[in-house]
Design brief:
The protein is mainly β and 503 residues long. The chain is 2% helix and 42% strand. Strands 1, 2, 3, 5, 6, 7 and 10 form a 7-stranded antiparallel beta sheet that branches. Strands 26-25-32-31-28-27 form a 6-stranded mixed beta sheet, with no helix packed on it. Strands 4-12-11-8-9 form a 5-stranded antiparallel beta sheet, with no helix packed on it. It is globular, with a radius of gyration of 27 Å.
Length: 503
Amino acid sequence: MFNLNKKVIMKLKNFLFLATAFALGFTACSDSEDEKPAVGITAATIAPAGSSVEYKLAPTATGQLDNNADSVAWDVTDAALQEAVLKVTPTLNTTVTYNGTEVTAAGITIDATQPIVLQATGSGITNTVTVKVYRAKTAAEGLAKKATLDATNVVWRDFAYFKGKFYAFIVTKTITDASTGAAKEDYLLKKSTDGVTWTDVDYAVTNVEKEVIGGEGARLAVFNDKLYVLLGQRVLGEDKYGNPAEIENGWFGPSPTILKWRAFVSEDGEKFISLEEESQLKVKDETRAIYTSYNAPFANAFVFKNALYLQGGYVYGFGMQQTNRNFLKTMDGKLWENLSLTDAEGASIALPNDCAFFELGGKLFVVGGYRNFISANNINKSVYSTEDGTKWTTVAAEVAGAPALYQAKAVSDGKVAYLFGGESLNDSEERVINNKVYRSTDGVNWTEVTASSAYAGSRFASAVLLGNVVWFFDGDATVSTGNYPAPASTDAYPGNVWNMPMK
């Protein structure tokens, strides 16, 4: 037991709490300090949202602060601390409150990213203690596995971080009739506070009846404080409302097709609006309805200098899947422009398909990808950059320190970029999944960083940067086949979640 009448510094295992107690007034039968009633806390714990560990508060012997030894784990998210559970056991005949709410051994939810002010009241005495949480400045080296999502029947996944939560868009396919091959597709949305524990989002499209969001190859994007679900094909089975797969008669029989421009937006991550009717394409000084052919699943989606971009992906033509070269830009999520790209001399160019985008020093960079189809001669080895999205410069003829990758993912804080996942051709021109992570400060020269031996890599992975923590989410773990390496419905999505410090 400790008495909050005196100055106390409380120490939390794995958390560091600075607690200063003040005696604000009391009534006692004796002037002897030793006979004052004990008004305080005998035990206290706090647990971030999603954590199964309850960390204990305890007084230190010397009152010295030890941030490295006693701080909150380096990768605990702010969102998890904002929904932390505080539990206390007060001394006899004492009530402890937080913002007027009693705190007991049952616990209450608090925001532990802000100073926590507790009031301990009993026997006419009120003591105040302020508790502050410090996050660790050091982190474990290398890539570490944090969790594994359910991988049953998954045919596509994409991830984003929106308003304090991780979001996962997941498409699953379930065979409903083995004799005919009939199948059902579910278009799921999940969220997580800590990247480890995930719950289903019971979302709704409010302006279209019997509608789901996205499709295979849909991308999540956070833009102007809204969550977007962009693009996507629906060719593997009917949805939960009975809408059939999008199949038409092609040159060689029934073939997948894309019938709609797909764009959905939400302000809260639950209620979505379809932007199909509102979306337009800017052509010179005119606007028109956006072409269905601009719905190119598996495209890159990213934000650069207050604009949202879509690049590449795949479309269907003549009953076959083909690469897409469009580079779309929007300032409001509704009016899109297909940019005409040029090189430094003003010649028209197209960026490689399945390349990786990232920002360094205020410039947008591109590495990797391929042109036309997968072959040793078509793999892009050059590095490109732009300041405005339209005029591109060749920064280097060949990337250094990393293989030429396609379908890799890059993430950057503006000063440092990490590149991971993707696929490449080895010396025998065999396709191999990249299980390395690379770091660069200039976009050209890359060095390998420590990764877990369990990290096998994947194509079409996702990434989120929170502070100095990079979160990696595995995509398609199957080596591609065919001229165009779009994912197949039989590919494996392990659903592993990884993180590492960005340094």
